[in-house]
Design goal:
66% helix, 309 residues
Length: 309
């Protein structure tokens, strides 16, 4: 059956009868309810009771591995010496400190050869400095990844700390070679070394996580971080022993979490002095407090990273 144009026009409803509701119903099907002006369901991430969700981090543990491996390759890509820079930096610093502080300045070293004394302090400090610098700039350096796909953002500074841990393998190899050269043998205190390494890694993760979150919003952190680490270096007993500090001022030095860690490293490696348990307890307490504070700050600022990074 065919209709003339006039008959088709008569069959259509008048324009006045075509309200927005009938037009929307005609578009989405006869009898279908109209779409609401606002969404009925809002999808938001679940807020755990803790500032960090271990289950979510474990679900992305493979991504953590790939991010850490990426950071390792990027650091030494297109370099002539490659991973040799890991050993050259602390070795050059040890030679300079041994010349000026050990030979010319006659710095005491607790009956340990000063080059070995200085290098034992540079090993944990080199890892801490590298890990905090890399993790502090990690979110800004991974802006393309942060703004395009969802994953726990905490993995980015964690991967930077894990990548810096690779350097410890090379520096410890040089340290044990120096101990063999000077005839220093470790004792049973070496069994405490894994605990000290864990405490050092948590301190680097805490400070790196805090600076990475602040660096997204305040780019002054990237400029101030090297200066802060330089001041922190001279405030730690790396090139001098704690016995050089007057006894009534040692409590202030012990508030620095690196003090207990560095002195613990020397006690574990050389066995010349017993472990300074109060200093280690203060380092552990400060590290735990800083880690908890960094996790809360990171969680609070995480939702705005993709907008301002």
């Amino acid at each position: 059956m065919s209709f003339t144009p006039a008959e088709k026009a008569e069959a259509l409803p008048p324009a006045a009868a075509q309200t927005p509701e009938t037009t929307q119903t005609a578009r989405h099907g006869r009898g279908a309810p109209p779409l609401p002006a606002e969404p009925l369901v809002v999808i938001e991430p679940r807020r755990p009771a803790l500032p960090v969700s271990p289950r979510e981090l474990w679900a992305y543990h493979e991504l953590l591995y790939f991010l850490a491996w990426r950071d390792v390759k990027v650091r030494y890509k297109q370099t002539a010496l490659g991973a040799a820079w890991v050993a050259l930096q602390p070795l050059c610093m040890m030679l300079i400190f041994s010349l000026f502080f050990g030979r010319l300045g006659r710095m005491p070293s607790d009956d340990i050869p000063y080059p070995l004394f200085a290098f034992a302090g540079l090993v944990p400090w080199s890892f801490f400095s590298t890990a905090t610098t890399m993790s502090g700039n990690s979110l800004v350096g991974s802006a393309n990844l942060v703004t395009k796909v969802y994953f726990p953002r905490l993995l980015v500074p964690m991967a930077a700390v894990a990548a810096a841990a690779v350097d410890l393998v090379f520096t410890f190899a040089i340290l044990f070679a120096l101990m063999f050269y000077y005839g220093v043998r470790p004792g049973l205190g070496l069994l405490a070394l894994p605990l000290l390494l864990g405490l050092l890694g948590l301190l680097a993760l805490a400070f790196g996580t805090l600076t990475s979150a602040l660096n997204v919003k305040y780019r002054d952190v990237r400029v101030a971080l090297p200066f802060l680490l330089q001041v922190w270096f001279f405030g730690s007993p790396i090139i001098y022993p704690t016995s050089l500090v007057p006894e009534n001022w040692r409590w202030l030095l012990a508030l620095n979490p690196m003090t207990g860690i560095v002195e613990g490293f020397r006690a574990a490696l050389f066995g010349q002095r017993p472990f300074d348990v109060p200093a280690l307890a203060i380092s552990a307490a400060v590290t735990a407090a800083l880690l908890l504070y960094a996790a809360f700050v990171f969680r609070r600022m995480e939702s705005s990273f993709a907008d301002i990074v």
